Each structure stands twice: as structure tokens, then as C-alpha cells.
Amino acid sequence: MKHRLLIIPLLLLCAHVSFSQTPKGAIDAFTASTGALPTIDPATGSLSFLRFPAQRALQINGGDAQQKSMNFISQYKTLFAIRDGEDEFRLREQKTDNYGLQNVTLQQTYKGVPVYDGLMKFHYNSAQGLTALNGNFISEIKVNVVPTLAQHEAESIAAGLVTTQQLGKSSVPVKVNKSTLCIFQKGLAQGFNGSKFLVYEVEVRNDADVREFLFIDAHDGQLVEQFKGMHNITRKLYETSVTVANLKWQEGDAFPGTLDQWQQSEVESSGFIYNLMKNAFGYVSFNGGDAAMITINNNPNINCPNANWNGATANYCTGTATDDVVAHEWGHAYTEYTSGLIYQWQPGALNEAYSDIWGETVDQLDGYMDSGESNALRTSCGSSARWQVGEKATAFGGALRDMWDPTCKGDPGKVSDPQYWCANSDEGGVHTNSGVINHTYALLVDGGTYNGQTITGIGLTKAAHIFWRAQSIYMTATTDFAAQADILEAAANDLIGINLQGLSTGTSAPGASGQIITADDVAQLVKVITAVELRSATNCGFQATLAPAPALCEGANAGLAIFYEGFESGLGGFTTSFSTSSAGWVSRQWQQVVAPGGRAGHAAFGIDYQGGNCNTATNQSGIIRIESPVITIPAGTAGDLVMAFDHYIALEDSWDGGNIKFSINNGAWTEVPPAAFIANGYNNVLTSSAAGSSNPLAGQFAFTGTDQGSVTGSWGQSQINLNAAGIGLVPGNTIKFRFEVGTDICGGVEGWYVDDIRVFTCAVTPAVHFAAASAIVNEGEATTVDPSGCLKYVDKMISIGIDKAPTQPVTVTFNTPTGTAKQGATGDYIISPSSVTLQAGSLNTNVTVRILNDAYVEGPETINLSYALNANGGNGYAASTLQNFELTINDDDLPPGNYTEELLSSNFNNGQQGWKAINGGNSYHTWAIAQYSNAGFEDGSPFFFVNSAINNAYILDEILESPVINTSARKNLVLSFRQIWERQVGDFAETGTVEVWDGTAWQTLVTQNEATGNLGSLLGYTSTLTTINIPDAYANVNMKIRFRYISRSEIWWAIDDVKLTAAHSNQILSTVNSGNAARQYLGPNETAVFYDPATGNLMAKIKNLSAHDYGCTTVEIDRAGANGTPWLGSYQVTNKTFKVTPTNNNPAGQYEITLYYNASELTTFTPANIQSMGKTSGTIATAGAANTTLAEVVDSPALTSDYAFTATFNTGFSGFGLSNAPPGAALPVTLVDFEGKNTSEGNVLQWTTSSESNNDYFAIEESTNGKNFTESGRVKGVGNASVTTRYDFTDVDFNKGITYYRLKQVDFDGKYAYSRMIAIDAPSAGNIRFYPNPVQSALDIELPNLQRNWVNARVINASGQEVIVKERAVVQNGRLNIQLGKLPAGIYQVLIANDKVSYRLSVFKP
What residue stretches are annotated with the Secretion system C-terminal sorting domain (predicted)? Predict the structure, then answer.
């Protein structure tokens, strides 16, 4: 069995949350001027952290740190939306820390009453500059601060509640230790916004094994919240009281005396952590005031092994008290007196982690109980004892947690790890999720590579000081992981440059360590925080039990509804009753109470009684009811009849619950069927009697449980269609309702609050509104082809109506839609008509939104509709709700590629996740989410479960159905799930089928029965992974998966981790498809992907870069084959070519086109050869110099081993292919040949043209790699010619080896084209250089190794005229200078010669 060291702390709490509006503008302005980094706490909506840049601490007026802090609050109150006369701060603490730095804590108050954890902490550097502030500000508090209850009354209620809960195993009575009046805000620990209350925070304890913090509403005495204060092991074993008889050792006694090794460790190891905190941090004992550290060992009333801190003593059993475990428990004590972290969710995980951190730090320093251990740096799970927690605890069988790699022990090492715990158990996973913080510390100390970050460890001393400063200065009771990230960075920055005190567990302080935190150390910390994802949101997705419901119409309002009860005057006409068969039943009834959860006014409340000892004498099994008066539905009532009610659910999950019964015309009482609910139906089926429940409602549909991530509920609304099958209410009938709360033998949470019950019809006022607030349409639903034959469409009808006939027709004119979708024939949708008329005989009408199924990969898009109303002098008016409608369009187009798409992933850790149970057969037993302490799947997480091991009279036909999954155009669908199928061979042949909805019918994929045999074991925690391939033909926009179980008194079926994936795999078309071309609509600024209609194989992608509408566009492969074929001149083009034909071509169009080729099509004519994409009017086969354009092409991998070639054109569409011709315009010059060779004068290039048209000049470009070219000279062209023209050029400045050359032929209008490349291999480099080129004035020519000191120089223009002549020009130091400044612009040949050398240079003067 896997043990967990649930070493739990003590805490002070009074949680808070706010949904207030953060003054964003003020924060933005402040941070812009100061450079501060702000953090907004999602649980309060307020500024929770403000850190100023290094070297830019904020200077505040004031004589000391306290005055500066108060002045900051006064000067910058807009940062917090502080209200004068209501929100105030007072000094709570001012101290100088161990580093000599000032820290001030201010306590928030509201009208003089302290706000729990409303602490703002200010941190100053040595120059009294503000470096950071953090904490919580609770805004918009609106509570009555004068308590109705006396303090002693609240204490009595709290003590009574804890007594009835019977939490401890000992017989020691509980007592109230202290209580405080404060403002409490729910949800801060869980990270969500809750309501604010005036409460008494009451600590109830027995100084043994019970310590609870209860928050009692100071007005009505209701329990608002409760948190544990005990810190213990997973098995929840406790110690007892301190007695003289049990005193085994005290200061001054001989050591070890008669103590065994575990008792010795309890004494010595408590001294180790005492010395560590005192020596390194100047903090003396756990309370900072040198309190006695009292330890108790092995009390007879304890079921050992165990270890805990109970708020007064640390307690251990034989075999548990290793040095790290002892220090861990005392770590909880230090936490209680510093940060005061509560013990739930992320704050609780931090509480656990800090105890592990101090326990392991002691273990690495003390040299105690280390025999046979290695403290070497870790390389794998168990490679050494370093970072193992409790490895020497024999009672636990070895280490319980691993800080270096928490996953080695099943804990998360980062927030996104699948081990991250989201369930309510273990106080929200405090012992599991602590792994993230443990890993943070170990990574920071030792370093390593993790989650994409490479970290250099900063060592134990620096890390310990950072974490201690975080704990002792910054953290509050509800600090979460994101806040911890900010706090650690702030703490590290505070310590930069300080010589840190050494770490030691000995009695003598070692003094300064010489360890100094640097900016690089802080950078490593930032990497660690990124690696473990402290600032990332969890994947828990906590949700309220009751989801937001559709808005009600005007007819549901008081005064218009057929029946309305708001419980503001007692219970109105409702009556109460109860039923039970238990003699131990505690009498109770529904009653009127003040509504909880921040709701104004009163509500009816049915308590979920928390008492009972789970034995017959105190059996609390029974039902309490509240019954409505008779409600008469007037004859002639128009419209649908609806019942709605607001409620708040906090009932013991699956054991206790509430549901609704009805009676029509005084007939039998019947449960409201689940199918009748319009919104927020029953959320579960109560545990059956066969599974051990004694609740009279066992096995019925019910509301049960609490909100996720919380021990309470929140308000929501349920709506019931009273005309639905199973109810059938009609005008002229009467109806009554019963709300019933059923409880089992013992245990409870809070209860069921119900308010604003109404029965109504909407047809009572002439109010105009949309029929719904939103809808979703899938592009894949489009099946009708539009007149162009290119687009398919589907018409979505949006209903708008008026509830009652108006006195005059009402004109509804629709406003221009907003949203991300584009309106219009070339966009995503068309809407019509633009206005409608509502009147008698036409109370409802539809607006048609035509959704166009384009070929654009767009993702979800929205259309937002609204309207203006003209009553035309009548009584029609706009309703108060449903005045806007949002239509979401789900795209069905996928980007080309080979990848797996996850379409569904359901692990049920956070509720039903859209799945629904459909109850069949003859019982209420059906699929429900379950989680057991003694059975389940391998990871112990929640799962869907149906149990047929019940009464033989019950026949089950139960369906578990998924939400709708859009699988349109998806292929290679694979369904996988983990299951436990246990059957019993008997007289009923149970079956389990897995089925899929193909759009028209359910198709069976798998059938399981008795012959299948057992698959996994629920009690053995083993499951079977099942994988099923779904035929492509079943893909549709409304696919669903369902599990159907038909059984009678057999065993069970459990399902978890359901996934549906689609493997998207493209092939590239290689064959001619001219007779069946791909057709898509190519609208303005859109991108369309073209697939072969016959095979679905990929062809091309076109991105329209203009506002031009090309309309219906076809793409075809008009020629196929591998590699290249001769084309223009000496160039080649691919054998496979394309033809693109739009309806509306544009000769001056702008577009980007991508052509796809298989690797097998380019084996010899490879991407390395391809330099351009050619486009020829008509087809590539008809290419000529006059009708072909060559564009630069970019190749990239496609579909793993194939190719995509992309080019951009500014022309019309036509034929396309890939070529080795250089990019540019089509050659206006017919180049007969282009050759080159190396000579004594240089690299000589020669070329011949047979015709020229508009030819301005040739630029000679050279390259050493064949890719990157530079211009080396120019030769003037003849312009226009139809005869042979010969050209030559000598390059005298070249490198040794191969030089590549090409000609860039340039027209007079600037258009250009490239020649093919040639290569010249020179045995040595050229010995002449000239520059600059182009030249403005002076041309410098370098002539190294010249055997004469003179040359003759001539400059010749493009007409062959000598414009400069220098005879026997002197060459000084190997350099000749020629002034060209007075020459006109043009290309010039410079001839340099003497009796030994001769050179020809070409220069350009702009």
C-alpha cells in the first residue's frame, strides 16, 4: 500500500474573495510611470502584488517605514478603489528583519472591523525605498458590521457543531480556544470569488487530535466555512494530551537516558530545526519568542504510526520520528506563526511543502540518522537519499515523497502534470500538490534541465534564505502558487548583495557564509518558476454545481407569474413535514433563514444535519419536506407552463440529497423526471441501498454535493417544463410541489436553500426578445449548393418574437451584425431580412442566417445580432433579457499536414464534462460519477459508474451519452477509454455496448457480455484500456458516443479517460485530374486549400493578397510525371504542372500560391535545382519568353517527407510549374550562349544574343557559393536588335577557386531576368581591385605586384568613345586614381595596360 505523509499544520483563517472591479486605469498609469510589475489576484479582483524594478525602488515621503506605508495608501488609494470612511488600514506590525531591512504590515478594516487576511505588506531596502508590497485588499464590502449574535453565542454554536461532527478518535472534550469578529470572504483559498460576511472566527480544539476553525455568521449563526487545523498523516492517527505521567525527558535531564532511538530523535531533531531557524534567520523557536517545544511520544490512545502538530505539541509514534519528519512537524508550527497558511487547496499544498523543505534542509545539514545513505546529486528515482522525505521512517516502509522528482512517488513536479490533484479529498490535494513547491526548492538548490529550462543550482544556503524570507515576510494565509512565484522573486531581489548567514543545526551560529545572492541567481529562480509552472492555471476547471441558466421572460416576474414565493414573510403558504423510522432522529424541519452566499433577503432552508455517530442509536435517516399550497392554472392560459426556482446546494455528496415531487389535481406524488428540466437538472443519483445507503431517497435522482473546489455551494437556477412528458400539466389543472431533503445514517454538510419559486407562462406581456441567447452551427452542416456551384450553404433560423399580441404591429430592425465572422456573399454568412414585423397572428418569426461553407481555415467565428424596436404607438417593448443573440460558426477546414487531433477528452475529475446519464429500465439506478476510498481505477480519481448489484426486481437499461462532437471531414477516428467490466454468470445475460451516432442512427462498435469475462477489477484498482477504430463513414457534425448497460442484479461497469482522436493524414496528388478539378471559392484576402475531389489528396493552397474577388476557382493538374523537362531556352520545368482558373481573373492580381509535390516526383530534378516558380498564360506547355513570369520560390517540408513550394505573383492566374530558371521577369533577350574562362588577365566572360528588346544593360553578378550574389560590373546593352550581338567582361577581382557568375539582364523599365549560372575555377586570386563601384567621383584601382610603375589608362563610354585618356600614368604604392566625377551617368569600360599587363574593368556611374 502506498502511504502518504500527511504532515499537517495549524492555521488561523478568515478567508476572503471579491468580484470587485479593479481600477485598471490607475494601475496602468502607475506602472507606466514607475516600471512596477503588478499582479491582480483573480480571487479578489484586486491588486495583490507590486514589485518595483531593481535599482528603482519607489521613494515615498515619511519619517519612517510605518509613515511611508500609510502615506502610500493615502496617495495611491485609487490603485485599490479604497472608499473614504469605510475602507481603512491600521498598523499591525513593523519589524526589522534578519537582513536589517524594514517591513511593515497594515491590517485592512471595514468600518472598524478587521478583514481577515486583508493584510498589505510593505518591504523596504536599506535606503528606505519601497521594493515591493503584497497582500490582499477586499474591495466593495457591504455588510452590517453590528453583530446580531453575541460572541459567546457564536462560540457555543461552533463548539456544538464540532462536538456533533465527532472528528477525533480520543475522548477528550473540545473547547473554544479563541474567537474573533471579522469580515470573511469565501473562496480565497480555492481561488474563486465569493460573498462577504460578518463572522466570528472560532477556534475549537481539544489540545489532542481535534482543531477546527469555524466561521459563524454573526447575524444568523449559520456556518459559513470550516477549515481543519490539525496536521497529520494520511491515515489520520492522532496523539493525546500532555500529562505529567507521560513526561519522558525535559531540558536539563541526562540525554539520552532511557530514551529509545525514536524518542532521542524527537528531542535532538527538534533542537536541529530550532538551531537552524535561530542561527540562519534570527527566529527563536516556532513562535519567534523562544516558546518551549513540547513533544509527545506514543500515547496509548493513538493508533500508530502517526506524526502531527496539533497547535500545542508535536507528536510522533515509534518508527516515524526521523530527523526530517520531526523537523517537518515543527515546520508546521513555524508556518502557523509566520505566514499562517490555511490547510486547503494551493495554500495547503504550500503549507505541506514548506514543512518538507525545512525537514529536508535539516536532514541535509545535521549528519544525523544518515548511516548507509548517499547524499550525492540525484540522477534518477532512488539514485541517492538526497531529497527523499522520511526515507528512514521504518513505520512507513521508506520514503513517502520525492522532492527531486515528485512523480517518483506519484506527485506532480509541475502544475500541468497529470498527477496534479483536483478533487476535494485530502483538503484539495495538499499532500499531493505540495510536490510542485518541493520540486521548486530542489531544482533551485541543485539545478538541472526540466520542462525546457536549464537551471544552474544556487545551493542550499541561498535557496533557504529566499524561501524563509518569502515565508516570514511576504506570504499570507491564502497565498497560492501564482502569488508564491511573485513572492519568491521579490524575496530573492531583496537579498541581492547581502552576505547571508550560514546554515547550521548546531548550537553555535556559523556567522556570515560568504554566500551572496546575485542577479544571475534571481535569473535561475525565474527559470525554476517557469519550469514548474507556478504562474500557470491548473487544469482542474473548478465549476459550480449549478451552471448559468437562460434568462427568464417578463412573465416570471412577481406580479405577472401565476405563482410566486420569495419567502420574505416566513414560509408563505408552504407547510413542512418529516418522515423517519429511526428512534434516534433529531427533530428538524424546513425553515425561513437569511439567504447565504451574499444573496439578499431570505430563503427556505432544509438542513443537512451533521450529527449522528453512524450507529443505530443516533440514526439520522429520514426526509424533511416543504410543500407548496395548491397552485391553480387558469383555464385558457396561453403559452408553455414553466416552473423555476433559485437554489444553493451543499449536501453530503451522493449520500444526502434533495429532489422535487409534484402532484396534479391532488393525485399521487411523483418525482419530477430529469428530462423535464430545461436548465440545471439533478446532478447525480443518490447512493443505492444495495451500496449501503439508509437514505429513504436512496437510488433516486437528486441534487447533491457541493461546488467543486469548495466545501459550500453557490446560487443558481433550475427551470422545469411543466408541459413535458412525465408531468403533463395543462390549463385548468392544479399542481403542488414538494422539496425533499433525504439524509442517511450520519454525516452532513450544510443543506438545501430554495428561493423565488415561480410558476409562469411568458404569454402575458408584449415583450420582444430573441428566443435564445446563443446557438452553434457547424460549417459541415452545409449540404445545399449555391448557384455558382462552388459553395455549399446551410440556413440557420434565428427566432425572435413577442410574448403577447401588441396593440399595434411592432417593427424590429436589425442592427449591423458584429463579431469575428465576415458578412456578405464573399464572406462567411448572409442575413435576411433586415427587418421583421411582430403582430397578432405573427408573434414569432425567423431571421435567416445563411452560413457559407468555404475552404478557409478560420477556427470558430461569431455573429452577434441585436436590433432596434419601433412600437408604432402601441404597447410593444423590448424585454429586459434576450436582447442579443450570438451565433458561433465552427469551421470544418483543417490545415494540411499529418497530425493527430484530439476531439474529445473526458476524465471526469471535474464533473460530468457534458456527458449525461439517461435513465431506463424500471429503477432510478443509472450512471453516476463515483469515487471510493476502497475501490476505483489505478489513479484513484473519479469515474462514471453504474451498479447493477441491487434488488433482483430492478432491470437496468442505462445509457451514458457524450456531448456532441463535430467530426465532419475527420478521418481515422479512434475511440479509447479505460473500463472495468465485471460480470456475473447467472440467469440474466447482461450486455454492455459501445455505440456511435453516425448522424442518422446509432451504430454498435463493441458488445460485451458474460462471455467477455471480467475486464479489470474495481476492488483491485485495475482497469483495461480499450481502443476502437470508428469507420470514416460515421463522421458527422453531430457525432456522439454512448455506453449502454442492460442488466439485472449482476455486478457493474465503470468508465474513465474517454478520448476520441482523428489522425489527419494527407497524400499529395500525382495524377492528372483535368476532368475533375478541385473547386473552391477564393474571396478577398482569403486563403483556400484545394484537394482533389476524387481522392481527397492535397494539391495546392492559394492566399489572395488583395480585395479582388476571384469567385469560384478551379485548380487542376494538367500534366503529370517525375522530375523536369526542357522548357525555356536551356532551362527545365517540372513534368507535373498546374493550371488555375478563377471565374474572375485579374491580370494585376496579388496572390501567394503553394504547390505540393511528392518526394518521388523530384528525385533528379531536386529542390536544390529549383530556383523559381514559372507562370505562363494558358498552360506551362505553351511557355515563351513573352508570356512567362518567373517568381522566387521558397521550398519547405510538407507531410513529413514531401515538399511545398511557395511563390508570390502580381499577375493573373494561369499555368504553373517549378523551374531551374532564375527568378525575375521573362527574358526579353534571346541569349544564345554564355561562357567563361580564367586567363592571365582575369576571369573572362563572353555571351552572345540573337535578339534584344528594350535591353538597357547586363549586370554581371558573382558568388562564391552559388546562392549569395553581388554585382561586379555592368555592360551596356544595345537596346533593341534582331541580329547577333557579342559581349565580353573581364573580372579582375576574384578569389582563388570556383567563382559562380550569372547575368542580370535589365530592361529600360527596370524589369529584369537572370541567366543561367556558370562556374570558373581560378588557380589563384585576381591581382587587381577597384572601388567603389558604382562610383560617384574618384575611382581607385589597386595593382599589386606591378613590374612597371606606370600604365596607360583609357575610359570608354557605352557609345565606344574615349572620354578619358591617361598615357604613362604613374602608379604610386600600387595604386592608380582616376577622377570620373565630371562624366555623365552611365556604364564605362576602363582599360589598363602597359608592356607587361592588360586589364578591362567595367564600372557604373549613377
Answer: 1331-1397
The sheet carrying 1362-1370 orders its strands as: 1362-1370, 1350-1356, 1386-1393, 1398-1405
Residues 1210 and 1080 in one domain: yes
Report if residue 240 sits inside a domain: no
Range of the domain at 1355: 1230-1405
Burial of 989 (0-12, 13-18, 19+ CB in 10 A): middle
How far, in Å, CA of 564 to CA of 760, rounded?
A: 9
- Please provide residue 1227's backbone torsions phi and psi, each rounded to the nearest 5 degrees: -65, 120
Q: How far apart are CA 728 and CA 197, in angstroms?
A: 43
- Establish whether 465 is a catalytic residue: no
% of the chain with per-residue pLDDT over 70: 93
Q: Is-contact 528 443, C-beta < 8 A?
A: yes
| Residue position matching grid coordinates 469560384 | 1112
CATH label of the domain that carries residue 155: 3.10.450
Residue 115 lies in a domain: yes
Rounded Cα distance between 518 and 458, Å, is 10
The gap from C-alpha 663 to its chain's centroid, in whole angstroms, comes to: 47
Whether 1392 and 1290 map to the same domain: the answer is: yes
Same domain for 1317 and 1373, yes or no, is yes
Query: Is 266 contained in some domain?
Result: no
Under 8 Å between Cβ of 316 and 297: yes
Judged against a pLDDT cut of 90, whether residue 24 lies above it is answered with no
Asked whether residue 951 is domain-assigned, the answer is: yes
Spatial contact of 986 and 1075, defined as CB atoms under 8 Å apart: no
Reply yes or no on whether the pLDDT at 1055 is more than 70: yes
According to the model, what pLDDT value does residue 1280 have?
A: 86
Which residue type, as a one-letter code, is found at position 790? C
Give the residues across from 838 on adjacent strands. 810
pLDDT value, residue 10: 25
**SS3 of 293, please?**
coil
Residues 1275 and 1366 both lie in one domain: yes
| Burial class of residue 1360 (count of CB atoms within 10 Å of its CB; 0-12, 13-18, 19+) | exposed
Residue 1307 is part of a domain; what is its CATH number? 2.60.40.3080
Q: Give the C-alpha separation, 824 to 822, whole Å.
A: 7
Q: Can you tell me the distance from the alpha carbon of 920 to that of 790, in angstroms, rounded to the nearest whole number?
A: 46
Tell me if residue 152 is catalytic.
no
Residue 1093 shares a structural domain with residue 1176: yes
Asked whether residue 599 falls in the same domain as residue 737, the answer is yes
- Are 604 and 641 in a shared domain? yes
Of 1168, 1190, 1225, which marks where a domain is finished? 1225
Domain containing 932 — which CATH number? 2.60.120.200
Residue in the structure block whose three cell numbers are 543545526: 505
Q: Does residue 969 sit in the same domain as residue 927? A: yes
Helix H or strand E encompassing 66: helix 65-75
Tens digit of each residue's pLDDT (9 = 90 or more) over 978-1002: 999 998 877 788 899 999 999 999 9
Which of 201, 266, 329, 861 is labelled catalytic?
A: 329
Residue of 3, 328, 332, 431 marked active site: 431
Residue percentage of the chain with pLDDT more than 90: 50
Integer Rg of the chain from CA = 41
CB 37 within 8 A of CB 209: no
How many domains is the chain partitioned into structurally? 7
- State mean pLDDT over 1353-1366: 86
pTM of the predicted structure, to 2 decimals: 0.53
